[in-house]
Amino acid sequence: MESGTATLLLILIWVVLPIPFILMRAPAGANRFGEVGRPMDFRQAVTAFFSNYFNFSGRASRSEFWWAILFVFICGTIASFIPVLNLAWSLGTFFPSISLAARRLHDINRNGWFQLLSFLFPIGVIALIVWYCKAPRDAAAG
User: What are the domain boundaries of the chain?
Assistant: First the structure.
């Protein structure tokens, strides 16, 4: 009986905990994180990904984010066949991936700390993917 209650409580926390953060509206008005991120092609996005290694400020456009994610995914898939290379790739792209995601969230006027919702799988991950796909948030856009 106790283990069933504990399991139910854990599931409720896992599902209910992210809901207030997901439903929280982004602040109205001008975007507080700076100028709109400019659209980029694949090469520009990969260059920006590595040149903004520890840059957690500013904004990243949808094209910058998704081209960089595609690059990381393809290279990670190739590197996965060689364990040492896979470890080096994972460690080398850890911080730029976090900073890119923070800048992408800034583009919709949300704080980069919302990335922590990814630990609350699957609800938090789904919310983040939806947010990563959203158009930039500015006063003119509403």
Answer: 38-142
